[in-house]
Amino acid sequence: MDIGSFKDEKFEDNLQEQRDEVFALQSIFNTDDEEKLKILSEVTEDKDNLFTLLVLICPKPVQEAIQVDVVVPAVVDEDDEELEGAAAAPPMNEASSPPSFANNIQLSRSLSGQRWQGSFVVKFLSPMNLLVTFPPTYPSSSPPNFHVSCEWLTPSQLEALESMLQSLWSEACHMPIIFTWVDWLENNCLSHLAITDQLMLRPSVASHDDMQETS
């Protein structure tokens, strides 16, 4: 689909709004001590290229702390797929170590012997990423192209967040939207996903190194 070019004068107002928005976002999110916004590309003086931004977002927990439950396969085959059935489980008295990322987590074997499981408590979760690119038609007629990524959320949860961001854009009446998106993700995404005091991490998302444990 042709998104147009800033060399077309009809997008001049959009370009100015985008530049103003990027400048405002930098002043809000970047300080001497912290840089939450990174500009990956920007429109040149010749009006080539597009603005692409990466925003690091730290969701605020609903409760003071979150219990993270970890479930990790104990046995995998050559293709790293979890084996099924009793034959896949090693004898319970056979020496076996939990995954390397879990050195600081007390894990126990499940009754079947096929999984390691355990839990730990965190006060903060690792940041999620919001990647956005401004087409020449933004904000007058179309939203930014965007993608949300996060190591501790499932694909369906990420899809739910992106659907909500699209709804927020629809309500914005073609106004600059990035601050609204970031603010909503910081303050509302966990409650929107019903993550209050407990979070389940399965193999595809479990990564203790990016969590900050409580003392």
Which SSEs are present, and which pair or pack?
Blueprint: H1 12-29, E1 37-41, E2 52-57, E3 66-73, E4 107-109, E5 115-124, E6 128-133, E7 145-149, H2 155-171, H3 178-192, E8 198-201, E9 212-213
Parallel strand pairs: 3-8
Antiparallel strand pairs: 1-2, 2-6, 3-5, 4-5, 5-9, 6-7
* CATH fold-level label of the largest domain: Ubiquitin Conjugating Enzyme
Number-wise, the strands total 9
Classified by CATH, the class of the largest domain is Alpha Beta
Helix content: 10-25%
Mean pLDDT: 82
Report the structural category: alpha+beta
What are the secondary-structure elements, in order, as H or E?
A: HEEEEEEEHHEE
Radius of gyration (Å): 22 Å
List the domain count as a whole number.
2
The low-pLDDT segments are 76-95, 205-215
CATH superfamily of the largest domain: Ubiquitin Conjugating Enzyme
Strand percentage:
15-25%
What's the CATH architecture of the largest domain? Answer: Roll
